[in-house]
Amino acid sequence: MILRHTFAPPNNTRLGHLCGPLDAHLRRIEEALAVKIAHRHEQFKIDGPKVNAQRAMDVLQALYEIAQRPIDAAVVQLTLAGDGSMDGDVDGAVTLATRRADLRARTPTQGLYLDNIAKHDITFGIGPAGTGKTYLAVACAVDALERSAVQRIVLTRPAVEAGERLGFLPGDLTQKVDPYLRPLYDAL
What is the mean pLDDT of residues 91-114? Predict the structure, then answer.
């Protein structure tokens, strides 16, 4: 199926931010959704399976709405991972008080995840890699520490082994546990 769409009003700056450097954002969407995107100025043509083409159109529309300034590749990835309803400044979105002022939920699913962390003592986050589960959990812990809601942050390793037995890894206990905690240290 081929979908055609013309972004109105035409704005070359927004279109440049939407497409990304050397059309990198469009190539990322093509790769993720198995579609072909062609464009001439503000006129876009998406060729692919009906569901994927419609999803690509929704992602393009969501990105165009926030394209007043350059769009980071991570925002494109988060838009693809979310339900397509990305907003630059989401009203009512949970914003965390950390050193990074712009740290907030970028998709509705991330917003739900942050709400659950705030409302419940224990929250399990499952899902594909790169969707922000660990990063947002650590950010919530830092936020709680900054607000004095907690006195310390306890970092733990998984109780279930991730395909390898810790007893056979070389080194002391710190070197064995470090690979599990590295993402947490990086997020801190």
Answer: 74
φ, ψ of residue 8 to 5 degrees: the values are -130, 145
Tokens of 139: 């950010």
Q: In the sheet that 2-6 helps form, which strands lie side by side, from edge to edge?
A: 2-6, 43-47, 36-40
- Mean of all residue pLDDT scores within the chain: 80
- Quote the CA–CA distance of 35 and 87 in Å, as a whole number: 24
User: What pTM does this model have?
Assistant: 0.49
Helix (H, G, I), strand (E, B) or coil at 173: helix
The angle subtended at Cα 150 by Cα 127 and Cα 146, nearest 5°, is: 85
**Which residues are within 8 A (CB) of 159 and not within 5 positions of it... i.e. 6 or more apart?**
none
Q: What are phi and psi of 47, to 5 degrees?
A: -120, 125
> What does the alpha-carbon distance between residue 5 and residue 183 come to, in Å, rounded to a whole number?
41
Alpha carbons 126 and 130: distance in angstroms, whole number: 11
Beta strands (DSSP E) in the chain are 2-6, 36-40, 43-47
- Pick the residue with more confidence: 104 or 176? 104
Query: Which of 75, 137, 71 lies closest to 106, judged by CA?
Result: 75
Residue 152 to residue 163: CA distance in whole angstroms: 30
